[in-house]
């Protein structure tokens, strides 16, 4: 009887509690990767429960795994106690506290800064974040999505880059595929001051009178849109720049397939930058602000510019726009770069890290 029960235990699916402070219907990197990983872990045979602080939206969406939203303290304790491994997809300290009582195998991925580089902290904030760093350091396995985030904390940190949604982003080659404009430039992302879209508009204005026929398509929305539209008109770019608002992933891919260059001009040092992978997969060459995790995301074939410097960005744009042969070579390398970051690659590496968490914690399965 003991042998049968042991065999049944060994064959039982691994129970993973995936903790994500934010989740659908919120939209962002943590939300998207949480869904990708949950589905991927299930393909590996695991039983996955997502635990989040995000409430349900107006229209409920069905997932192939359980999603527990804003659990009560007792339910949270029970959920984590039942799990074989607890995985925080970015630290969620408000959902961590049961692990102080029930020491479960625990893995943490850093997807965002704990404190921003150069951030000035009050004495109270320093104590608060010191406690948060201490808690994160107690994880059995630490992962980060870029080298810069791995260096952001102490200890042995494995770097597993983000993936992109390869079911949406690719080079279109059917009869209805759009024609790629050799002078087409695109921006994809939120329209807020930290994203640096005004730097891109300033850089594009430097090209007026030098390069005829270039276009800039700005995909996304946000609090800075009205100011950016005004800056576009004042810069004499009304005919060249097109604001198309937020779009679904299929339409975004078509827009990328109509352009040759994607610019990521972020003022802040991004912890990674999945848009660089989406652009590469769609056959675009990326120009990026050379700080934070963007070099990891963009790859060696991409082109960096000095952060916060529109003249540096303008120079890099000019070099590519007048050298279509260079763009063609970089585009081929971009596709190879994207191939290394498909969802299955990221999922397999994360599942191996989950198994390592279970093995190295010395606490075993329930």
Structure in words:
This protein has 366 residues and is of the alpha/beta class. The protein folds into two domains: 8-163 and 343-360, Rossmann fold; 184-339, Glycogen Phosphorylase B (Rossmann fold, 3-Layer(aba) Sandwich). The protein contains 13 helices and 13 strands. Strands 3-2-1-4-5-6-7 form a seven-stranded parallel β-sheet, with helices on both faces. Helix 2 (29-43) crosses helix 13 (343-360) and helix 6 packs across helix 11 (310-321). The longest helix is centred in the C-terminal third of the chain and has 18 residues, at 343-360. Residues 1-9 have low confidence and may be disordered.
Summarize the structure.
The protein has 13 helices and 13 strands. It is of the alpha/beta class. Strand 5, helix 4 and strand 6 form a beta-alpha-beta unit.
Oligomeric description of these chains: single chain
Give the C-alpha Rg: 22 Å
Order of adjacent strands in the largest pleated sheet? 3-2-1-4-5-6-7
Q: What's the shape? A: globular
Q: State the CATH class of the largest domain.
A: Alpha Beta
Distance between the termini: 18 Å
Strand content: 15-25%
- For the report, how would you describe the main beta sheet? 7 strands, parallel
The CATH superfamily of the largest domain is identified as Glycogen Phosphorylase B
Order of helices and strands: HEHEEHEEHEHEEHEHEHEHEHEHHH
Number of separate strands: 13
**Fraction of residues in helix:** 25-40%
Give me the number of helical elements. 13
Helices and strands: which structural class? Answer: alpha/beta
| Rounded average pLDDT | 92
Low-confidence stretches: 1-9
CATH architecture classification name of the largest domain: 3-Layer(aba) Sandwich
Number of domains: 2
The CATH topology annotation of the largest domain reads as Rossmann fold
């Amino acid at each position: 009887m003991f042998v049968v029960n042991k065999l049944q235990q060994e064959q039982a699916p691994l129970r993973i509690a995936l903790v994500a402070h934010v989740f659908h219907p919120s939209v962002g990197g943590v939300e998207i990767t949480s869904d990708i990983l949950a589905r991927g872990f299930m393909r590996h045979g695991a039983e996955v429960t997502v635990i989040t602080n995000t409430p349900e939206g107006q229209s409920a969406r069905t997932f192939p795994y359980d999603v527990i939203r804003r659990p009560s303290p007792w339910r949270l304790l029970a959920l984590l106690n039942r799990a074989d491994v607890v995985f925080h997809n970015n630290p969620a300290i408000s959902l961590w506290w049961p692990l102080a009582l029930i020491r479960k195998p625990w893995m943490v991925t850093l997807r965002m800064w704990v404190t921003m580089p150069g951030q000035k902290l009050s004495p109270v904030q320093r104590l608060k974040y010191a406690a948060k760093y201490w808690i994160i350091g107690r994880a059995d396995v630490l992962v980060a999505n870029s080298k810069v985030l791995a260096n952001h904390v102490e200890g042995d940190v494995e770097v597993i880059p983000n993936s992109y949604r390869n079911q949406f982003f690719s080079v279109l080659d059917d009869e209805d595929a759009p024609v790629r404009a050799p002078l087409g430039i695109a921006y994809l992302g939120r329209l807020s001051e930290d994203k640096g879209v005004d730097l891109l508009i300033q850089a594009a204005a430097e090209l007026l009178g030098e390069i005829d026929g270039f276009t800039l398509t700005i995909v996304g929305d946000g609090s800075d849109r009205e100011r950016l539209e005004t800056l576009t008109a004042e810069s004499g770019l009304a005919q060249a720049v097109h604001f198309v608002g937020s779009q679904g992933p299929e339409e975004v891919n078509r827009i990328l397939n109509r352009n040759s260059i994607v610019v990521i001009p972020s003022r802040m040092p991004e912890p990674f930058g999945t848009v660089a992978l989406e652009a590469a997969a769609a056959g675009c060459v990326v120009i990026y602000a050379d700080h934070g995790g963007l070099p990891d995301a963009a790859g060696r074939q991409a082109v960096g510019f000095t952060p916060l410097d529109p003249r540096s960005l303008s120079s890099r744009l000019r070099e590519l726009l007048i050298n279509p042969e260079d763009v063609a070579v970089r585009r081929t390398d971009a596709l190879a770069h994207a191939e290394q970051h498909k969802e299955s690659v990221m999922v397999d590496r994360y599942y191996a890290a989950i198994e390592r968490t279970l093995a190295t914690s010395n606490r075993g399965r329930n």
